[in-house]
Amino acid sequence: MKDKNFVKNFENRIKKTIKTYKMITPKDRLAIACSGGKDSTAVLYVLNKLGYKVEAITVDALIGNYTKKNLENIKIFCKSQKIKLHVISFRKEFGYSLCYIKSLLHSKGTNLKSCTICGVLRRYLLNKYAKKLKFTKIVTGHNLDDECQSFIMNLFKNELELTARSGPITGLTDSINFVKRIKPLYLIPEKDVEKYSKLMCFPVKYEPCPCRIDSYRNYIRKVLDKYEKYHPSVKEKVIKVLLKIIPNLKKSYIPQKNIVLCSKCGEPSKDKLCKACGIISKLN
Q1: Does the reported pTM lie above 0.85?
Q2: Which of 93, 84, 41, 105 has the alpha carbon at shortest distance from 62?
Q3: What is the C-alpha to C-alpha distance for residues 46 and 97, in angstroms, rounded to an integer?
Q4: Of 116, 118, 162, 227, which is least surrounded by CB within 10 A?
């Protein structure tokens, strides 16, 4: 009975978050960004169960057996739920796997960490293909812990504009160049997502990505997890503060009227060359 109550409560919290922040309209076609992990699988399952128009989209960075197994799991899950799946490959798009890209960049003097490279290229591909496939919104599996970590990272780096762009619905303004991103798990702790995933017997790996070991986020994650042991619910309190300040932060960062487009690929960019093309150009 307790498990049934937890499952029902978990799904109701997602419904409430969607309703509170007006995330989805009946006309929306949702691209669920799936990694094969517990978070994206959980949000894909719940939104499909709730009757939204969902399709899965996954970006394969080709990180050895880790992403190979994740891709197998995604295919199994989507087939069982009768959900259409779109697979995008780093090798097909850029010519190389993530690990090879990192190695090649290092050999040329550009010492970017795997998570930085993966994040830039993954976001680029998701936005590019979401537009191409006519999706109206991209759904990510970011949970409360993820958002708390991002806020602390941005705070320590003095990246307030990135914080202004964050929230349950990301971005500073609507633009045809960006597909809006929403986070239905925004208010749900990671431990609850993991519990739900295990109760539902989802075919997912619970081991972390092997490339994240040296990432800044991993360091912040450990610090917050340790602090939470002595100060329970501190992550939830941080998110409550964040939700209070985001509206004022958004007003402080007025978006430019004319979005700059990358001179090479035509995707939106802050500079003449977008970050993705900047990385790929250094490989050649």
Answers
A1: yes
A2: 93
A3: 31
A4: 227
182: phi then psi, degrees, rounded to nearest 5: -130, 155
Provide φ and ψ at 283, rounded to 5°: -80, -25
Provide the H-helix boundaries in 36-178.
Answer: 38-49, 64-81, 90-94, 98-107, 114-132, 144-156, 160-164
**CA-based Rg of the chain, rounded to a whole angstrom?**
19
- Residue whose token pair is 């609850």: 192
Q: What are phi and psi of 262, to 5 degrees?
A: -60, 130
Q: Around Cβ 142, how many Cβ atoms within 10 Å?
A: 24
Query: Can you tell me the distance from the alpha carbon of 140 to that of 168, in angstroms, rounded to the nearest whole number?
Result: 10
Phi, psi at 225, each rounded to 5°: -65, -40
Strand partners, 13: none
Q: Are 181 and 169 in contact (CB under 8 A)?
A: yes
User: What is the count of structural domains for the chain?
Assistant: 1
Alpha carbon 277 to chain centroid, angstroms: 20
Structural domain harbouring 204:
2-281
Q: Which residues contact 153 (CB under 8 A, 6 or more apart)?
A: 159, 216, 217, 220
Interval 96-152: pLDDT, tens? 999 999 999 999 999 999 999 999 999 999 999 999 999 999 999 999 999 999 999
CB burial of 88-101 (b: ≥16 within 10 Å; e: otherwise) equals bbbeebbebbbbeb
Whole-Å CA distances, 50 to 45, 200, 201, 208, 276: 9, 16, 19, 29, 35
